Structure formats: structure tokens, C-alpha cells
Amino acid sequence: MENPLDGKALSAQALKTLVTDGTPAGHHLVYLPVGLGTPSSNRELANAVASLANAHGGLVVLGVETDGDRPRKLAGLGSGDPESDREEVRRTLTERIRPTVDAHVTVVRIAGGRHTLVIEVPPSLDAPHHVDGVYPQRSGRETVVMTAAEIDRVRAYRRSVLEGLRARALTLADAAQHNRIVRVKAGSVGLYLYVASVPHTLWGREVELASGDANLPGLQVLRGVVGEAIELRHTHYGALGTRLDARRESAEELAYISRRGELLHGLPDMRPFGGKVGDGFCVNVDGLQRNILDALPRNLVRLMDLGFAPPLYVALVGGGETTHVSFGDGARCGYPSNPKELVIEALLPLASLRTMSLPGNDEPSAGAYYEKLARPIRPLLDRLFQAAGLVSPWTRRFDESS
């Protein structure tokens, strides 16, 4: 998503600058002077958000009086309860837009005890979205209604993006497993987590990897010790880090960051997570998910610090020559997959990642500690347990607490 704030954080001053500079509404920016709660204002709000999701994402700023397409005054929404207004926006978007849009709503307090709301809308892989059967799309400084041909084109494009991400994950895992990224013991079966920034994928952008940042604190692989960093060396395609098994002189763990906004991390040898079953391999899902919880959320925080823009596509992928890989609970195994075709994938929502915070050492219990880590990556964890034919433990815990 292009940042209409020119890289500035959301704040009253940043919004004031939009007004004083006369920054016009555009392809990634919509101003709405309307309030909340009336049928017409709710429809206008839903149309604005859906139009951005059907294009390339952007910001909707509420409470801005305009002169044509230029802002004239940051009036705000009043001096009432900002949390009530935020919930009203969330409820409106959930009820009016189909499929639902993964938007993040931020309260910004302005002068005079007033406040406004800014809605951050990511590019959507669920597009096209409609409001009451009408498909709006942002085009330049206008919101237009999509034609049937445009709707079909967007559906085909989003589908091709997902297929491309899936293929890229498998390609990198295969390259890692067959000595094209690191040296790997022959005959081993690998298990990797692939993370890709959807906005970088859509627009072909690159992540800036500073030459002086050879050590990325907190970047871990699946079996990494909590808090332990991996030394990364820079290459022409990105950055690569490994821990070597001294006995085999091959990679025991690896972390690879490409400049196109993606991370591959994991194990070229997945034996720590399971064992041979016939001519295949069964991974214990309980041990694997604990390691994912220890590594992935911390890595996501660091990746976003580096410039990875959410939402993020994540996939657990295999690599190697064994007949099949399956997931189980120690007593039985689920449906087998060829490791070269193994993909357990999910899209991590923008809203959960924007508010993600890592647990501290003062968590009251191990259960609370891991629950906090699990919330932002629940879509991936749920699909992992589904692959083993099991009910995800997070489904019951989170559904009961929400």
C-alpha cells in the first residue's frame, strides 16, 4: 500500500500536514466529512473502504471537510467516546462489505478534545468486495463501479498472486534442500516456513537490507533458542544465515531473507519433529507448533521493522525425496503429501499484525505466554492442526474468550 502520509506515523500532526499541504484525495487516499450512524454515512464509509480494497489499498480519513478533492479543515468526529466510534466503524464494515475487509481502525486525537478515525485498508487477496451488490473501486481521485469484466479480471489476478506465492515457497524450499542456497545432507527431508509481504509481491518492491545490519537480533529458525540471533551474511540476492552441524558440515538451520520481501526459515532435516513411518515421514504437530510459536511471531516483528509490509502470506512447505510427509499427534498421522507439494498456507491479517506485541517475562503462566504468541498467527496454526485431522486447541480457547 502506498503511504499517503509519506512514511510518517499516524498522528494529529501528520493529518494536519495533509490539510495544510492541501494533499488531494487520490488512488490511495479518501477523505470523508460525514459522521457515523446514519444509513447514508454508513454506506459511504463502506463504499470508500471497499473501493480501496478492490484497488491497491490506502487510507480513509474521517472528519475532514473538503473543497472538491482537497482537504479544507480537520474537523474530527466530535468529543464523544472514541472507542464507541471505532466499534461503530468496525461494525459497519463487517455488516456492509462482502467478503469482509481486513481493515485496521486507529483513533487519532486532535485539538479541542476532539478525535478522528483513520482506516488503514490493505490490498486484498479476497477481492473483489461488494457493498449491497455493487463493486466499487478507487480509480485516481474517484470511486467508480466495476464492470463485470473488471470483476472477473480482479478475481483472476488475485488467484494468480496466491498461486505465485505458493510456487515461490516451494521453489525456495527445493533450492534450500538441494544445495542451491546452503549445503544440505543428502537424503534428508526439510521443513520450512515461508513468509512473504503481499504488498511487495503485488508491486514488485524490494526490502532495504542495510550492509551494516549483518546481525538481525531476534531472527530465529524453528529450532532456535529463544532470544538467540543468527548471523547473516549479505549476498547479491539478500541475506543468508545458518547454523552448521559441525559433524556433517551441512546446514542444521537456516534463515534466508530476499530483497523482494520474503523470508525462508526452517530445518533442512525435520527429524527433530517426528520419525519414519514406512517409506514416509510423520511430523508431531504439537512439538512443531510450539517451535513455530517460539520463532515466527518474533521474526514477524523484526521483519516489519525491516520494511516488510503486512498483510503477510505464510506457508509451511516441505523439501526432499521421501515418499510422503504427514502430520500427527503421536498416535496417528493425517493425510500424506509429497514433500515437494506440501503447502500449509494462511494469510495473516493486517489488524492482528499491526497490534501484535510479544509477551514479557511476567506472563502468569506458560499457557498465557503461548496464547499471546498464538493470536496473530492463529490462521496458520489452525491449518496445521487441520492437516493432522485434529481440532486446533486455539479454536476453543480464542472463541470462548472473544
**Number of separate structural domains:** 2
Amino- and carboxy-terminal Cα gap? 30 Å
- Share of residues in strands: 25-35%
- List how many beta strands DSSP finds: 21
Which structural class best describes the helix and strand composition?
alpha+beta
Mean pLDDT: 82
Q: What is the secondary structure topology, with strand pairs?
A:
Layout: H1 12-20, E1 29-32, H2 39-53, E2 58-62, E3 64-67, E4 70-74, H3 82-96, E5 97-98, E6 104-109, E7 115-121, E8 130-131, E9 136-139, E10 142-145, H4 148-177, E11 190-197, H5 198-203, E12 215-216, E13 230-235, E14 238-245, E15 250-258, E16 262-267, E17 274-277, E18 280-284, H6 285-306, E19 312-319, E20 325-328, E21 343-348, H7 350-354, H8 366-374, H9 378-387, H10 393-401
Parallel strand pairs: 1-2, 18-20
Antiparallel strand pairs: 2-7, 3-4, 5-8, 6-7, 9-10, 11-16, 11-19, 12-13, 13-14, 14-15, 15-16, 17-18, 19-21
Description of the structure:
The chain is of the alpha+beta class and 402 residues long. It folds into two domains: 12-146, Methyltransferase, Cobalt-precorrin-4 Transmethylase, Domain 2 (2-Layer Sandwich), CATH 3.30.950; 164-401, no CATH class. It has helices at residues 12-20, 39-53, 82-96, 148-177, 198-203, 285-306, 350-354, 366-374, 378-387, 393-401; strands at 29-32, 58-62, 64-67, 70-74, 97-98, 104-109, 115-121, 130-131, 136-139, 142-145, 190-197, 215-216, 230-235, 238-245, 250-258, 262-267, 274-277, 280-284, 312-319, 325-328, 343-348. The strands form six sheets. An eight-stranded antiparallel β-sheet has the order 12-13-14-15-16-11-19-21, sandwiched between helices. Strands 1-2-7-6 form a four-stranded mixed β-sheet. It has a three-stranded mixed β-sheet with strand order 17-18-20. Helix 2 crosses helix 3 (82-96). The longest helix is centred in the middle third of the chain and has 30 residues, at 148-177. Mean pLDDT is 82; it is low at 221-227.
